[in-house]
Amino acid sequence: MPVEARPVRDRSAVGRFPTVTLGFLEETEEEKEAEKENVETESACRQWLRKACPCCFPTPSDDDLANTLVLFYLISISVENPLLLKVQSIDLIKSKSEQNRMEHHTDLYQSEDFIIRRGQTFQMWITLSRPFNPSTDKLHLNLKIGSVPTVSKGTHIIIPLVDELRDDRWEAAVVKQDDKKIKLSVNSLPTAVIGRYQLTVQTNCPNGQAVSTHEPANDIYILFNPWCEDDSVFMDSEDERKEYVLNDVGTIYYGTSQQIGQRTWNYGQFDEGILAACLFVLEKSGTPPSGWGDPVNVARIISAMVNSVDDHGVLEGNWSGNYSAGTSPTFWSGSVEILKEYHKYIGSPIKYGQCWVFAGVVTTVLRCLGIPCRTVTNFSSAHDTDVSLTTDVYLDENLDPLDHLNTDSVWNFHVWNDCWMARPDLPPGMGGWQAVDATPQETSQGTFCCGPASLMAIRNGQVYLKHDSAFVFAEVNSDKIYWQRNTDGTFSQIHSEKKIMGHFISTKAVGSNERNDITHLYKHPEGTEEERIAVESACRYGTKAEAYSSPTAEDVSIEVTMDGIGPQMGGDANLTISLKNSSSEARTVVLHSQVAVMYYTGVHKSTVRKDKTDVAILPSESKILEWSLEYEDYKDQLVDQAALMLTLSGRVKETQQVLATQFSFRLRTPDLNIKPIGKAMVGEKMAVEISFTNPLPRVLKGVMIHVEGLGLLTARTISCGDIGSRASVSMTEHFIPSLPGPRKLLASLDCKQLTQVHGVADITVQDKSNGAR
């Protein structure tokens, strides 16, 4: 039966959508004739191109015709039906001081966007073309995220209008009506995909349907919700939520286990443009938005994307000591500048980062997205390169280190992150804090990322549980095994150390600037039966399970100690070596010592000095040896972090017992002193004095000082030129505070001869209105 072509008006029916037929767009004879005439008047080349190139002259598809039909239909009914229900405006009540953002704990974001948390209701006003009639009018909201929104994947959300809201579903209810305006209360799912949604409103009435135009200003930003009990990132302590979600300044620890240093870091997760930058990082990953509702997946994505190795992520790592093509890692004092630059240059990696910079950025991103997160430092942190779950040291026949075989390393410190979430993908009890590491060390499933790994699994040696718990276990609790080369080229185990890795695992305390030792969350107390069981259980899954044999008797022990807080940069380094003979017979030890300059990652740079000495120890005697390294020995060898390692190895002549230990230490650097001048008030100019004394008996060349402070001033760099030997300098910097409350001003110094110099000042800024009273 032929399809009859009728005008739209003849085919429209009140309260129904017209039947879609191709006949609607069939051409009349006059139209066909006119088109034929147009074609005939075209040049021969153009006629040939019309036939040969479907790109330039496409033939309409059935979908094109249907879409055109819908468009014509909506235009016709809007013209002909003045009683059609249409959306005229949407008010999301999105001001930082209004109900939605206050209740959703998003009022700190320096943005006028509508930012809310999932699993919680929000309010909105819709102004219609006429009063809403619940008995005849219908309305629903559409939220779409990603390039191909799909209802089944949770990236296209249809929110119906209901009489009464129920939990655990997307619904909206009219709670107030004022003539043409209706106020909706909208309920969201606690498992919703997080990100930026496009909002439209569709209305239906007996006169037809209409869909509002998408306005970018009405986009909805949905985040994880640690305040919602049904969200998998729920955290029940308000003090912990304030610290791990809302605090935008923190402390990062560095140094060695005996010389713990600290620096303040501006996380700045609420700074203007940071939320957009964090969502850009997610989008840049190329992962489908349908997976962005799972914090395990999101944390893993961020772990991969904060380094640039295989995905052009945020930061390019550099441990070479040469940073001429970018910014020295020690120069950064916050994440804001890094993320904004990455977003500004559309995903071009920022140069350069090292572990504390990677970790600082991860904390910013996860807190910004609503996942509780903290920055964690592990002192004496192993890097296991062969999945042995041991840290292996290879020596030659003379007990000298075989550098080409010693690929495992022990970092003086390593910084990563803990994030808080449930782990429904693991056995019960594995939720809570999860370790995530963005520093690119080893690949995980082909990508340079690490975690999230359950701290409970790490503590108990359950290294078979995902993700990457074996790698983190080795970092905090592996034994150090010494192997000696035999004459036939094979190796024999000659010594092991069991209390070397994972000391003073540190993070900022909740609600204060104190250091919180969380080692007990990562491992049982050293030497206890529980700790040994965890180590042996874990190593059954490693590549050197045979390394665990019955211990041999030992009657000579060796230990290295350091007085006080350790040596200062520019001075001599003094250590104490203690040898104890617990037997009733005399012992003679042939002791080898080697001191080397190390990158903080445990990678050897250069050997500074080697010594060999014979030490005679009487029965039951404890012998003390004083060891010293002069400034002249190390002054031209140092790299970032001023890290040094003393390696001692020896053999007891009488018993052939092998002694071995390593001791890492750093040379302490001075602080930048920051002194506020005058009263701090929003909108009024103030100043700070920054002073510094060069600790070295040499000139510092091309000194630069980096200054920044959230709510005080945007990041800026000051050129200080050269600073003479042991000389002191000071400078005054002016700025205008923009936000009230307690603030921190950070400064860091950088030059070729000296790094890791920084300072912080606490400044309380008064609101102008309060100060005027």
Automatic annotation (TrEMBL):
It is an enzyme of class 2 (transferase). Its cofactor is Ca(2+). GO terms for cellular component: membrane. The gene is LOC115417445. Keywords: Acyltransferase, Calcium, Keratinization, Lipoprotein, Membrane, Metal-binding, Palmitate, Phosphoprotein, Transferase. One of its GO terms (biological process) is keratinization. This is Protein-glutamine gamma-glutamyltransferase K. Belongs to the transglutaminase superfamily. Transglutaminase family. Binds 1 Ca(2+) ion per subunit. Transmembrane segments: none annotated. Residues 347-440 form the Transglutaminase-like domain. It comes from Sphaeramia orbicularis. PROSITE patterns: TRANSGLUTAMINASES. It comes from the Eukaryota. It catalyses: L-glutaminyl-[protein] + L-lysyl-[protein] = [protein]-L-lysyl-N(6)-5-L-glutamyl-[protein] + NH4(+). It is found in: Membrane. Its EC number is 2.3.2.13.
